[in-house]
Amino acid sequence: MSVPRYWREEVPRYRLQGKKCKACGAKYFPARPVCTCGSTEFGEYKLSETGEVVTWTVIRNPPMGYEKYKPYMVGLIELDDGIKILSQVVDVDPEEVSAGLKVEAVFRKVKEDGKEGIIQYGYKFRPVVE
Amino acid sequence: MRKVAVAGIGLIKVKEYWDRPIGSLFQEAAYKAMKDAGTNKIDSLYVANMSGALMQDQLNMGTVMADVIAKPGLPATRIEAGSASGGVAFHEAVKAVASGYSDCVMVGGVEKMSDVLPEVVTSSLVMSEEQEYTAYTGVTKAGLSAMLHRLYLDIYASPEEVGMMAVKSHDHAVGCRHAQYPFKMSIERAMASPMEADPIRMMECSGIGDGAAALILVPAEDSGVEVAGSAVATDYCSLAQRDDPLTFNAVKTAADRAYKMAGVKPSDINLAEVHDDYTINGVLSLEALGLVEQGKAAKLVAEQGTARDGKIPTNTMGGLKARGNPLGATGIYQVAEVALQLRGAAGDQQIEGAEVGLAQNMGGIASICAVNVLRRLA
Fold it and tell me: Rounded to an integer, what distance in angstroms lies between the CA atom of residue B306 and that of residue B56?
């Protein structure tokens, strides 16, 4: 991962921040340059940090760079504001995950590029403790 | 627009060619296609290849393959559209002949996956996804398919019914000379195989193989096999951006365009080659193509509806699961297989009386799809 490529995504990844279309109000994460309504005018938008698991899987044969974390879960999560997001689901055993499980965002390490590369961070989601 | 015909077909067996470089595979398929067409006077070349940059450190694949077949001077282009590279390249080659710009085009697909370790293949597959918010999660292509698989099981079918997609592909590969895995596989074996990405099991996934396939396209005359319809469509890359992830809109749109161009309805299709890189993707493709109602494809497959004598014979030479899935070459294999069927040259795999067939090839998780409809003339 190159440094500029990582650096320019820091705000959306660290703050769960997307964009809201100024013309039609549609909310996006990640940001898009053009809204489906055709507008290119957007304001900042802070996503809900809680939501529900829609569907999920367990990654047993990961891509390069993620090997030492296996097995891990990735889910499609619908946030309370209606935005859907893909994320790792952590701090829970696969047997305890089901559709509708309430989850919250946490800030976590994602991976590291060897001994000299950057350590990469981002959001993951874990079950909400009532 | 001129009508276009498939005049030459060249295939090699999908397998692991440890002792041969990628160019040698392409050359063999290309020479078979020219011999089959009875001409070597091709005037342009399209090469479908997905991952040569990662697997062989090779870009400029169009030029490299023109060099390999000793035809410097030929205009050549490499087409990359993820796993849909073959189907999309075929579509571009059809346009070249239909427009009148070219009179004799070679479109070939080639991929050599055995040059790298399995984890490199896994990484290469997820390179078709958006990188910063999809691939960054550590998800794989199998994992994304698995999330759809789970949703489908919740609503429509049992694991065994979806798994039958792989069983049927293996059934159809028996006796097929270019298939990588020409043997039967039982549903019990599939369901006992280890989890790849829950709930997808290893024996529901296409494997790693090397392959090359080539076709020669010319203006259509009164006989042979014509390209009746050819279309490509895209969708939002991420599953998170789609209203209903179980609906493959790119497949639907491409199919609608191709059917319209061919003047056919889904019920007119006599056989289909669909993109079963994972069982669930084959199932959802059958539905998006309009060949089966939404939610009913897995049941149809389990009830033998996609068998050789079924309602819609599907993956008649093994599909991606059993013929093999050499990424960029896969879409060309599919079209070649449909053309062989319509010629009546499919040997043990022959679907008797087939007149119209389709090949459906997709990249990403149905973020791009090519649908090509072929018809027998005279």
Answer: 37
* Host domain of residue A27: 1-47
Two structure tokens written together for B15: 């397998």
Is 90 exceeded by the pLDDT of residue B123? yes
Q: Does B244 touch chain A (CB under 8 A)?
A: no
A 10 A CB-CB count for A25 gives 11
Q: A34 and A14 share a domain?
A: yes
Q: Which of B119, B122, B239 sits opposite A76 (nearest CB)?
A: B239
Instruction: Report CA dihedral (B254, B257, B260, B262) to the nearest 10 degrees.
Output: -70
Residues β-bridged to residue A112? A119
pTM over 0.95: yes
Residues of A with CB under 8 A from a CB of B: 5, 9, 13, 29-30, 54-64, 66-67, 69, 72, 74-76, 84-88, 94, 99, 110-111, 122
Q: For residue B340, which amino acid is it?
A: L
Rg (CA), chain A: 16
- Using the predicted structure, report yes or no on whether residue B140 has a pLDDT greater than 90: yes
Optimal mutation site among A9, A47, A61, interface B, most CBs of chain B within 10 A: A61
- What pLDDT score was predicted for residue A1? 87
Task: Say yes or no: A22 and A39 in one domain.
Answer: yes
Give the residue from A2, A34, A57 with the most B CB atoms within 10 Å of its CB, the best one to mutate: A57
Regions of chain A with pLDDT less than 50: none
- Would you state the pLDDT for residue B378? 78
